[in-house]
Fold:
Amino acid sequence: MGRAVIINSIRFFVLIATQVFLFKNIGYYNLSIPYLYILFILLLPFGIPNALLFLLAFFTGITIDVFYDTLGLNALACTVMAFVRIVFISVTVQRDGFDNEPEPSLGIMGFRWFVFYAIILTFFHHLILFSFETFKFSELGYTLIRVVLSTLFTVLLILVTEFAFFRKKIR
Amino acid sequence: MRNLWLFISKYNAFFLFIIFFTISLILLINNNSYQRASVWNTSNQIVGQAYERVNEFSSYLVLGETNDSLATENARLRNLLKSSYYDDSLKQVTVKDSTLKQQYTYTVARVINNSVHQKNNYLTINRGSKHGIKKGMGVISSSGVVGIVLNVSANFSTVRSLLHTETKISASVDGNIGSLVWGEGNYDSRFALLKDIQSHLTIRKGARVITSEFSLFPPGTNIGYVSESNTRDGNSALKIKVKLDTDFTKLQYVYVIINLLSEEQLVLEAQNKVE
Structure:
């Protein structure tokens, strides 16, 4: 329990820092923008209570918003993402598997499941983020292109990060 | 009650989602000017369109009167035509007239929302920035002064009607200039008050009240006529009640006045402030 808190805290600070100081300046012509910080919400443990999950997601979003000057936008996207996460996990993971599988990382859950999980969650996060940023229906096509391209970019970064740091956990 | 708690705790993810979603949405709309502006714009657009629909129906009910007022207007304009004057000079000379320069142009607009019963009344018209309407322009009807443009969107504008406590119009009666206000003690849409006219003057009942040279309306635009004029005790100004020419309850078509020289005037007047 204590170990999970420490690991997740460190992960939180590292991911926020890289997002704000590095990935904020990276992008492909405003079309493909990476949001790697959502990996923090992706990797929260299975057993986390729903209330805490929403609170953490909201807080993460607000933290990013403070740096991006878009108060509420990332918080909104993260809240939606937390909800999608709860639904996705309740559909795909057996309940009795919670005890010996602490967190949904690549090493533990396997490549196919993790890629699917990352793509779905990232897609919903980006969909909400970009559509509320644009805030009009008339640019729907452009927004969807942005969502798809950014999802690809973010998922790629998530997979790279997972392969780089969490490989040794494979049992 | 127990069942309700069971229900809520069973679907707690959904309820938490709703709560956090609402909080973030409120934060987003309150703190980001672009999103806030688009929310208000969209709702204004929807409201404007709804009013336009309703007005399409209700305008049928006053079609006869609208026709009458248009016919009177036509007749009045026809009277102003050159062709309606009898030319009694023997030789006709065409002179290219450079002494007159057009200062005011008029854009016709339809009133799609109107109120007369509030303390501060507004109108909505179906012309906006697309048609050259800007904030602060004067609005008149075929019979007289209506109000001042307050806010402009692409297709609609709101007009602060004369029936508004903050509307002040510089008016003149028999050459004496005062300011026309509404809502100080009276909330009757047929009458307004003319203030700041010295009490030693006698203003006869029935005198025409027109806009003065200082107002943003063309000088001499009809406002109404004096229906009552008396002094208040110990007050240096007359209390003049003006019967308005415009029937605000039946407004259908109005004209927005575009002053072609106003920019020049404003630029010149702004120089005064700099010095």
Observations:
- Chain B has a mean pLDDT of 81.
- Helices of chain B lie at 2-10, 12-31, 33-61, 63-80, 262-274.
- Residues 33-61 of chain B form the longest helix (29 residues).
- Residues 104-260 of chain B form a domain with the Thrombin, subunit H fold (CATH 2.40.10.340).
